[in-house]
Design goal:
The chain is mainly alpha-helical. 70% of the residues lie in helices and 0% in strands.
């Protein structure tokens, strides 16, 4: 039983470790590691600023797809094998957690990755669409008001365990704890952004026109 659980979590982590911003930036015409440009973050928003719309779009598709794939595989394992965790939502939230761990600390790229906002959203798109919808609404509202992606991401991260509690409290109370830990890790990954926000030095979104 534990073997199938460990397999699902390992697959989720390895899929999360496929950092498409790093892969695409290293193979783009400049062949530069995204972690050496802009905000030094391996994520969609830095790709948008540093490389432009098309590379950022491919990053978005890749990072979104790996989150969806992780949940699909974990869902298949849960439904077809004898897992000691009996609650599917809890199992899938754990899969989301490990996928996001892979994105933030990817084993393929020296454990230096992104901040997992997009990956979290993608995973929850299949876990519970209401949670995913809530995250994107909060993100877009703050982005429209502030024009600052990092602030929007932080607010979405804060809202994530709250949304899980609201929509899944009758399904699994432990899902909230996993979501809370993931939220704390995402906010931790934004610590330099938070310092710049406090100093009023955080830049608003600008798209590279390359």
């Amino acid at each position: 039983m534990f073997f199938y659980f460990a397999t699902a979590m390992m697959i989720s982590y390895l899929l999360g470790s496929l950092s498409f911003s790093i892969i695409i930036s290293k193979n783009f015409n400049q062949k530069k590691d995204i972690r050496s440009l802009g905000s030094n973050n391996a994520g969609f928003s830095n790709m948008l600023r540093s490389f432009g719309f098309l590379p950022a779009l491919f990053t978005f598709i890749g990072d979104f797809s790996k989150g969806v794939l992780a949940i699909c595989i974990s869902s298949f394992i849960f439904e077809n094998f004898n897992i000691f965790i009996k609650n599917k939502i809890f199992f899938l939230i754990l899969s989301c957690f490990f996928c996001c761990l892979g994105h933030m600390w990817p084993c393929f790229f020296k454990f230096n990755g992104g901040k997992a906002i997009l990956t979290t959203w993608a995973c929850n798109f299949l876990i519970d669409f209401k949670i995913s919808l809530g995250l994107i609404i909060i993100f877009l509202i703050i982005l429209i008001l502030s024009k600052i992606i990092s602030l929007s991401s932080i607010c979405a991260a804060v809202a994530y365990p709250i949304l899980v509690f609201i929509f899944e409290k009758n399904t699994c109370k432990y899902a909230f704890l996993v979501a809370l830990i993931l939220s704390i890790l995402i906010i931790f990954k934004h610590r330099t952004n938070i310092k710049r926000l406090i100093r009023n030095e955080e830049k608003s979104i600008k798209i590279c026109k390359k």
